[in-house]
Specification:
Elements lengths: L6 H7 L6 H12 L2 E3 H7 L5 H13 L3 E4 L7 E4 L6 E6 L5 E5 L1 H13 L10 E4 L2 H4 L2
Parallel strand pairs: 4-6
Antiparallel strand pairs: 1-3, 2-3, 4-5
């Protein structure tokens, strides 16, 4: 399944109001890999803080974005992409997040889930440690 990139259609399909703020935030999110609420607050100072947080919650609810598990304080998010599997390694020193492809790992997980009659709703795998730069220090 591939995500529809027309926010107006997505919102209408989910019976949600189409607003210019939601469109602007979505257009920004599509261009980013990982972002957090502070980034949106800084990028859109003209949008009320509460509106940004309501939009984040709405996008989570209708599965446009997902939370990225992180050791860093505060939540990070990313656009939901069904066309490929990728996950994250996070450096617990500098907080850099490195994405990696994980199709082979998920093939194994899917096979195990199928054998156990387990229906997977969401898949994510995060690994923490030190990046190359911080390992040298």
């Amino acid at each position: 399944m591939e995500i529809e990139l027309d926010i107006k259609k997505i919102l209408k399909k989910n019976k949600k109001k189409v607003t210019s703020e939601r469109i602007d935030i979505f257009d920004y999110v599509v261009k980013k890999h990982i972002f957090d609420s502070n980034e949106l607050l800084n990028k859109f100072p003209e949008i009320w803080r509460a509106s940004i947080f309501r939009t984040i919650n709405l996008f989570l609810e209708i599965w446009i974005i997902r939370k990225v598990k992180s050791w860093k304080s505060g939540d990070s998010y990313e656009l939901v992409r069904w066309e490929h599997s990728h996950e994250h390694m996070e450096c617990w020193k500098c907080w850099e997040i490195i994405s990696f492809e994980s199709d082979k790992i998920y093939q194994e997980i899917n096979q195990k889930a199928e054998a156990l009659w387990f229906k997977i709703e969401e898949k994510f795998l995060n690994i923490s440690g030190k990046c190359k730069k911080c390992s040298k220090k």
